[in-house]
Amino acid sequence: MNAALTERLVYVARAARDAGHGKRGAIYDAACAELGMSRATLLRRLKEVSVTDKRKKRADAGRSALTRDEAALISATLREATRKNGKRLYSIADAVETLRANGFISAGRTDETTGEFFPLSEDAISRALRNYGLHPEQLDAPAPYTEVASLHPNHVWQIDASLCTLYYLSNGHKGLQVMDSAKFYKNKPANLARIASDRVWSYEITDHASGWIYVEYVTGAESGENLCSVLINAMQERGGADVLHGVPKILYLDPGSANTAGMTKNMCRSLGIDLIAHKPHNARATGQVEKARDIIERKLEPGLKFRPVHSLEELNALAAKWRSHFNATAVHSRHGKTRTDIWLKITAEQLKKAPSVEVCRELAVAAPELRKVTPKLRVSFRGTEFDVSTVPGVLVGEKLMITRNPWRSDVAQVVLTGEDGHETFFLVEEEMNDAIGDITARYAPLTESLKKRMAELQSGIQTWCEAHRDELTGNGKVKFANLTTGEVQWRNRPPSVSIRGADNVIELLRRLGLERFIRVKEEINKDAILNEKEAVKNIPGISIKSDIEDFSIIPFEQDVQ
Domain named Integrase catalytic: which ranges (predicted)? Predict the structure, then answer.
């Protein structure tokens, strides 16, 4: 309303308020003719510019002839007659009429004086349903929710799988084809079944803090294998503008069987990822990754109609180019910057590098194993002993859950469950004796090559020295020569006897009467003395020692032969 109209309406409202009983109608009629509006419009405009007293509340306000049980029955009928898409097949009037006709409700009042029945109107029933909190619009209202915030990039990732409108051609031609809506829809299930195994799935991953979108396409179905493969690829450092990588602290997903499969749990447990699945039928919890699918459908996949794709590898190459460009250029409405700019704010402490693809795949199929603690407080795992003496509450004979450490081969992880029910890892070191053996084995090829080289050099030196022996020894006056960096010597070995097959030689010497060449050794049987201590206790030179404790320090060492 303009200022002139407002001023005129204020004047009319004041005149009507000051007019006597029965005179307001004439004022309203004159104003309608002057302003060119109907009586209803005039009264509505007057209400906007005037102050009126609050209407007195009725004594029976909020009360209804419709009982709560009847309201609940009407509400249940309306809910059951509603499709999943929200289309309501029954109106309130239809539901009330049907229930009345079948004698389930009365939905009205009876005059006690005349006995006349007055049915409640549709509006009265609708108001009663709202007063009871049973109106379908109230029941269909979404549940309240709380916004969550991630602390930094790679703090929370969301992942989801979507069935695309792409499928592989199976008619002799190669490539991917966009599904034609005229051929593939609900009324032609045979066509959908024919290409079911050739459909292409996409996995979307979003970094919650920055909104960075990672997309990768797979074939087959939504499975634990496909999810692990995509997650492993996303965690790898790919270089260039495709910046998203590293191990997230939390992975948030829907509670589908593929997402909570053993492979997924194994890998996340080993990498220290907290795997959280939201409640069923609560897709809004992973709304960011659902929105990512919408962005991909509107900005990437429409172009596939105009650019033929001949293989899944080519499709993923296009997806990599698209996500690198989109995340680096599109400004996010939440933080007002590009997704790449925000992700690059990650610090070195927050960026946890992922192990290689091969190690990640091994972690996915290798569940933690139970290992028994030995009296030395060690456990055997993957052919190596690990010291678990530092594990809190460890006991000899109990079993610990052990898994490999993705980043260090000389360390294993003990899986512990905290008071809050969450799993934590305790790192245990490889037993040092085994480490020495590993070092020896690691350098064995180098040692062998050095020993071979030493033998060659020694043979060469000996050959030269033999050729110059007279010069070096003063024509045999000495049997050594000082070569400044070392000394060479010639030494005659004393005569020695070599025996092969000692038992046969002894028997033959006895047959030939040559027992003098056989040495018989007499010695005291100490084990027999320990068994009969009392018999020898008074013999000089024999004493029994017992209850003696030795303390020794035994360093680990390894000789290279």
Answer: 149-347
The one-letter amino acid code at 160 reads D
| β-strand partners of 205 | 159, 214
Average pLDDT over every residue of 493-517: 84
**Tens-place pLDDT, residues 144-196:** 777 788 899 999 999 998 877 665 434 444 555 544 444 434 444 454 444 44
The dihedral sign for the CA sequence 90, 94, 98, 100: positive
Q: How many residues does the chain have?
A: 561
Cα dihedral 390, 394, 397, 398 in deg (nearest 10): -130
The two most distant CA atoms of the chain are separated, in Å, by 163
Q: Which token pair is 66?
A: 């419709």
Residue ranges covered by each domain of the chain: 3-49, 68-139, 156-343, 368-430
The topology (CATH level 3) of 156-343 is Nucleotidyltransferase; domain 5 (3.30.420)
Q: 262-271 and 224-235 helices cross at what angle (nearest 10)? A: 30
Tell me how far apart the alpha carbons of residues 116 and 218 are, in angstroms, rounded to a whole number.
71
Q: What are phi and psi of 421, to 5 degrees?
A: 85, -5
Question: Tell me: the pLDDT tens digits for 73-119?
Answer: 999 999 988 887 778 888 999 999 999 999 998 888 888 888 888 88
What's the burial of 256, exposed, middle or buried (CB within 10 Å: 0-12/13-18/19+)? Answer: middle
Q: What φ, ψ does residue 147 adopt, rounded to 5°? A: -75, 140
Of 214, 216, 198, the closest CA to residue 206 belongs to 214
Would you state the structure tokens that stand for residue 388, as one six-digit string? 């678990």
pTM (global) more than 0.90:
no
Q: What share of the chain has pLDDT > 70, as a percent?
A: 86
**260: closest CA among 338, 187, 159, 184?**
159
Q: What is the pLDDT of residues 352-371, one digit of tens each?
A: 998 888 888 887 777 778 88
**Closest to 406 (Cα-Cα) out of 380, 385, 384, 425:** 425
Query: What gap in Å lies between CA 126 and CA 120, rounded to an integer?
Result: 10
Does the structure show a pLDDT above 80 at 551?
no
> Parallel, antiparallel, or unpaired: how do β-strands 423-429 and 411-417 relate?
antiparallel
